[in-house]
Amino acid sequence: MIEVKNIFKSFDGQQVLTDVSTVFEEGKTNLIIGQSGSGKTVLMKCCIGLFNVDEGEVIFDGRCFSELKEKKKKSTRKEMGVLFQGGALFDSYSVEENVMFPLNMFTKMPFEEKQERVNDVLKRVNLINANKKFPAELSGGMTKRVAIARAIAMNPKYLFCDEPNSGLDPKTAELIDELISDLTAEYNMTTVINTHDMNSVLQIGQTIIFVNKGKLWWKGNKKEILETDNPELNEFVFATELTRRIKR
Amino acid sequence: MGLLHTIGDYVVLMAQTFKRPDKGKVFRKQLFIDFQHLGVDSIGIVAFISLFVGAIIAMQMAYNISSPLVPLYLIGYTTKQMMILEISPTIMSLILAGKVGSSIASEIGTMRVTEQIDALKVMGINPANYLILPKITASMIYNPILIVFSMVIGLFGGWVAVSITGIVSPVDFVIGLQAWPVPYDIAYALIKTVVFAFIIASVSGYFGYTVKGGSVDVGRASTKAVVSSSILIIIFDLILTQMLLT
Ligand SMILES: Nc1ncnc2c1ncn2[C@@H]1O[C@H](COP(=O)(O)OP(=O)(O)OP(=O)(O)O)[C@@H](O)[C@H]1O
Ligand SMILES: [Mg+2]
Q1: What is the DSSP string of chain A?
Q2: Measured from the CB, is residue A40 less than 6 Å from ligand 1?
Q3: Which of A66, A135, B132, B137 is the most exposed place for a label (fewest CB within 10 A)?
Q4: ipTM of the complex
């Protein structure tokens, strides 16, 4: 479980997040939704410690991240898996080396065991026969899957995904969503997902927060979101012809 | 104000860089890659330029020293001194600043804008230490080797030039090369080289690491890396010469 308490964040005087508080639950897919530029990525980067917050705190199962000593911070980081918007694969390493990277850095496993672990997670994300390929040779969907594989290689307790299915066709997008949701249940992770894709919201939105102009606007789940009377959220949810038809 | 800020950021980054690597094995592997990438891959250009510059200097010296009052072996001697004291350590370092510096800045800069550095950081790795330290170490070990190599090739180039043109007999030239050997000259050259190597790798690492934005900014950072390290090399050349030779 991750508790976000009263977070404020600004860049050069521009207030991006204002007093955001929420709880991301364990074993669930927790969605952060909102328009482009509303502050989703900034919120996620505050959670994983890439941005220092101006005020407020993020608590990982009782551990307040900003107050931890450097060593504890490091060990908490090892419990996090992060999927960046662009994948952020190391482009000088092959698929296999990318996935093995955290194992090389942080474990003393013998090579065979690491190899086995790599093959397991690659199989888990449905990527076979791509071990020796380099990131430049992968399609968008494959890149995302390798990035997921790398993120879960260390069996994280917390998984963060920034727009895991943006730029993918609807079918592949759905597969990625299912994959993340299955992994979450399987490993009982606390998963946080940024998205503005309504398909994902309706499919895997176990808990949902709606961020608008840097403020927490609404909390709920995928059932409640279709029945909300919050005007801004309605505008967001029923922005497309498809969702308007669902409503009717 | 901007300059002070930059220097401050640079010092902070170096403090992060010079930490004990998380894993010795991973560091050694990275170091080996950088030896190849920054060192071995530069042999060709260093050999080519040294050979020609050595030849040109020998010919210019012959042109300058064409008085019957001056012994001919001075041509070999002055060529040697110029190669060892200045051409090899400084000019080759400037060339390496262009080749190696731009490569370091663009590699690290690309990793920054594609969030690879953020990915390292959230894994709990110190990215500055992981990325920059092996490059600085590799440059400081390998550049002196390249520079000694450049001296040898340059003097060989001079010998070839005088042999072909016959301005002076190769025997006189070789006598000049052997005249008044001063081991301290080589030490002076190597000390300069090591300092320049540190400048190239750390300054380029800094500009790559602090890129903000996209591919255009990576290009800009790479230019800044080359320009700044070249300027610093020349300034430190003056300082070190004052300290070590006068
Ligand atoms: N590093 C930064 N420096 C300055 N401003 C930033 C930075 N990162 C984000 N911002 C600003 O914060 C605001 C929120 O950006 P953010 O990236 O969180 O949006 P988002 O909700 O993730 O949008 P998208 O769906 O397009 O990814 C934007 O106005 C952006 O300009
Ligand atoms: Mg975003």
Answers
A1: -EEEEEEEEEETTEEEEEEEEEEEPTTSEEEEE--TTSSHHHHHHHHTTSS--SEEEEEETTEEGGGS-HHHHHHHHTTEEEE-TT----TTS-HHHHHHHHHHHH----HHHHHHHHHHHHHHTT--S-TT--GGGS-HHHHHHHHHHHHHTT--SEEEEESTTTTS-HHHHHHHHHHHHHHHHHHT-EEEEEE--HHHHHHH-SEEEEEETTEEEEEE-TTGGGG---HHHHHHHTTSHHHHHHH-
A2: yes
A3: A66
A4: 0.90
